[in-house]
Design goal:
The protein is an alpha/beta fold. 42% of the residues lie in helices and 17% in strands. Strands 3-2-1-4-5 form a 5-stranded parallel β-sheet. The longest helix has 18 residues, at 9-26. The two termini are 26 Å apart.
């Protein structure tokens, strides 16, 4: 269902816009990367990220077929050694984790010194955020499980986890 939405006309256009935004922030950073909340591997595959974790076995199967090395794990307790990755991507995942501060601390733990956290969000105070929040309030099967935050709230969480934000794009 997730991939079918992204394959539809509207979903494809949104995915391409999101991908361009993430690519612009990532720059030319290479090395070992992890996607937290890899889902079906759509973003990891498009960005050349080789590893991903998720809690959904079905989505991990699809990501593995896309060539992503997958691991069933939660964002709050990653099964990796400290400083294992040059970069960590969380694309539209932070709103679905149960403990955002713990998740960001884990991202910091698995990143090498000077590593990059690439965080894609839907801000609560954006048009999309307001739309998704309304769907959540109406009991949408996916968005009812999300906690949307404003960009400033996310920036505060990121700073509290010890990151120094370098940039943002919309």
């Amino acid at each position: 269902t997730y991939d079918r939405w992204y394959d539809a006309v509207e979903g494809r256009a949104i995915f391409e816009a999101e991908l361009r935004c993430l690519q612009s922030l990532r720059g030319g950073r290479t090395g070992r990367w992890l996607e937290v909340g890899v889902g079906t591997g759509r973003f990891a595959g498009a960005l050349g990220i080789g590893e991903g974790i998720d809690t959904s076995p079905r989505m991990l199967e699809i990501a593995a077929r896309r060539g992503i090395r997958t691991c069933a794990a939660s964002a709050e307790k990653m099964p990796f050694l400290p400083a294992a990755f040059e970069g960590v991507l969380m694309a539209l995942t932070l709103c679905f984790v149960s403990d955002a501060p713990r998740t960001l601390s884990e991202c910091r733990r698995v990143l090498r010194r000077g590593g990059q956290l690439l965080l894609g969000i839907v801000p609560a105070d954006s048009a999309w955020g307001r739309s998704y929040s309304a769907k959540a309030a109406a009991g949408h099967r996916v968005y009812a499980h999300a906690r949307f935050r404003t960009a400033s709230q996310v920036m505060q969480l990121v700073q509290d986890a010890g990151f120094a934000p370098l940039g943002a794009a919309g």
